[in-house]
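Sample A.
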Amino acid sequence: MLTHTFAFSGFAVPDIEAAHAFYRDVLGLAVEEAAMGQLSIDLPGGGWVLVYPKPDHVPATYTVLNLEVDDIDRGVDELEAAGVALLRYEGMGQDDRGIARGIASGFGPDIAWFTDPAGNILSVLQNPPVD
């Protein structure tokens, strides 16, 4: 078994300055410049993500970062007010706002997806209440 001392995640963007502004100003996360032109983004609840420049970046086809909120509707309102467009996925049962309502159906969280300026897929989600 691997013996480790720390863990973190990372993903690429083609434009570090655009990522810095988006994650700080739109998503309200603490963003710091790191070595070699990278960014360190502090995540609520602990942990962090390394964002690194990659000029030939191709966005992943999956969600790279999930942001949990207490109220999905308010979270979507805040994203839309900041000019963020929600993604629509065929077969995901999203409502008119682009929210997949998993809590009411008993099938997971309420979740809405969007992209950062690099096209990386992110989500805002509200988990079901804990019994």
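Sample B, a different protein:
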Amino acid sequence: MISALAIMALGAIVLGAALGFASIKFKVHGNPLVEKIEGLLPQTQCGQCGYPGCHPYAEAIAKGEAEINLCPPGGEEGVRKLADLLGREVKPLDAEEKPKQVAVIDENTCIGCTLCIQACPVDAIVGAAKQLHVIIEKQCTGCELCLPPCPVECISMVTVPETVDNWKWKYPVTEIRKVA
């Protein structure tokens, strides 16, 4: 009995190693341009660009089917980075640039319906049915997709104040020199 279990365990290890090797040996790489474009996008998966996430938007940009100025979370800085990568003209953002926000749930109003959890594209909401839900602030991208499904409107968006830890340059160094 013990020897049979040992043989089965050894077989599982050998099979796992073989499958692991096969997955590495035959790994299929995606389009390098799509991967570079996606790396410049903010990964909010919010759909504000008109595509269901950052990867489909990156694919559309790479194919020439989408403009580079459709991502509000990426802002003007994101448009500049995409233009630099692709050798395209910088165009004004085709939406209002918003400050960084995170969702906050009012614990006295939340009924634990889980609709916000289902709507969150980055799994930033934790909770269970009929229990209070909580936002993981570091995961929240501020996409606002959790707001519409909430039947009791217990979720609000709060602007994250800019600090030394989360600030970013808005303009390339060459533009700063021109101003100075």
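Observation for Sample B: DSSP finds six helices and four strands in the chain.
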